[in-house]
Amino acid sequence: MFPFTPKHLSQARLYIREASKLVAYRKDISPGDVIAEVEGEIDALKKLVGAKGASAPVEAQMQRLDEVCRKLHPPLRDGGWKENVEVFLVAISIALGVRTYFVQPFTIPTGSMQPTLNGIRNEATQAPPPNPLLRVVHWAVLGRSYFNLEATRTETIQSIQERHRFGIRLGPFTYTEVLTDAGSYSLSVPEVAVRNDPRATPGRRLVPGDIIARGYTDSGDHVLVDKFSYHFISPQAGHVFVFNTARIPTRENLYNPGGPSQFYIKRIGGVGGDSLRIEPPKLFRNGEAAKEAPFLRVMAGTLRNPVDGGYKGYSNGPQGSTFQYLGNPNDVQVVPENCYFALGDNSYHSSDSRDWGPVPQSNVVGRGWMVYWPFSRHWGSVR
User: Fold this and answer.
1) Interval 274-320: pLDDT, tens
2) Could you give the 3-state DSSP secondary structure of residue 155?
3) How confident is the model at residue 269 (pLDDT cuts 50, 70, 90)?
4) What angle do CA 260, 263, 364 make, to 5 degrees?
5) Distance of alpha carbon 172 from its chain centroid, rounded?
6) How confident is the model at residue 80 (pLDDT cuts 50, 70, 90)?
């Protein structure tokens, strides 16, 4: 304001200005005696500033003004936890906004996209689980959890059943119960993980120390799905995409018509207007073998010695059966407009559009963007 004004007077003028604003803001909702008290202290400070008072009395008056101004805006009752709740709600709102419009996490549940993306995998082992520290590292890096169940008495396995605590069908509340003629055991793993071990067979006679089930479960790839870019570009053949199964006659919808929609992740084999044909191991689109890199990678699995591991090419159906669409090498399927033909990279073990038809554009959620966990060889961009 004035280059040679003493610092304490400059601060006092600032106090006067801000206190006056506060009075104007709170005048209609604060008690009249409090307003009068604040205005009195403002006038007292103005007089000291006008008289260019010394530093000590001016600063003392600023302190008094600050104290009475607090009466205009008293601290909120339980303000601390209320502020924390507000911060939490804002964070949740931002997270939900990002999840709704930009990026959403998904877990790969099945092996229909292997080896491009891993679903949940269960392996039986002979060796016991590693030490606890290594188990923690394996879980953090690989998403791998171990299980080991040994018999404690002489008994016979009767049955293996999946149970749900409190009736909730979610991972932490799901466990497997192994019933014997002498009691029961429980494991915090899905039923399929236990049944995958040939040692966990009903009718097997056990003695103390026998292994009932031992192995590990890999959580499957966790993928971030880009929900934003498809607002500006159209899905293309070769993209890995996620869609919901509402009104699509998938096996789950046929067996449980009133059940919730599922989320699937597949690769787009063709878009609206494309004509498709499968002559194992090749996928033909519009009369020519697919040329995009992802399709070449899948088709090369049976053409040469696969160095990428696990690709077997495209098929007309699981071994011993055929699909409704593209069920033999002569079948041609024209993809309807505003639809996409979904194919799993693990063609011989994938329920996809060959089984239940094209995916409507309205069902598309977004494009598979990147694997964010576990930190295995799939970590990074989905290709």
Assistant:
1) 999 999 999 999 999 999 999 999 998 754 443 445 789 999 988 77
2) strand
3) very high
4) 110
5) 16
6) low
Distance CA 255, CA 4 (A): 86
Among 358, 233, 238, residue whose Cα is nearest residue 290: 238
Query: Quick check: pTM over 0.70?
Result: yes
Alpha carbon separation from 264 to 46, 199, 225, 315 (Å, rounded): 72, 33, 12, 19
Q: What does the DSSP 8-state code read for residue 65?
A: H
Distance separating the N- and C-terminal Cα atoms of the chain: 62
How far CA 190 is from CA of 121, 165, 243, 353, in Å, comes to 11, 13, 25, 28
Residue 155 and residue 342: Cα distance in Å, rounded?
49
Distances (CA, A) of 283 to 2, 52, 190, 264, 279: 81, 90, 36, 21, 6
User: Could you tell me if 149 and 129 are in contact, meaning their C-beta atoms sit under 8 angstroms apart?
Assistant: no
**Could you tell me the domains of the chain?**
7-72 (1.20.1270), 121-218 (no CATH), 222-381 (2.10.109.10)
Secondary structure (DSSP) of 251-297: HHHHH-TTSPPPEEEEEEEEETT-EEEEETTEEEETTEE--SHHHHH
Cβ atoms of 347 and 313 within 8 Å: the answer is yes
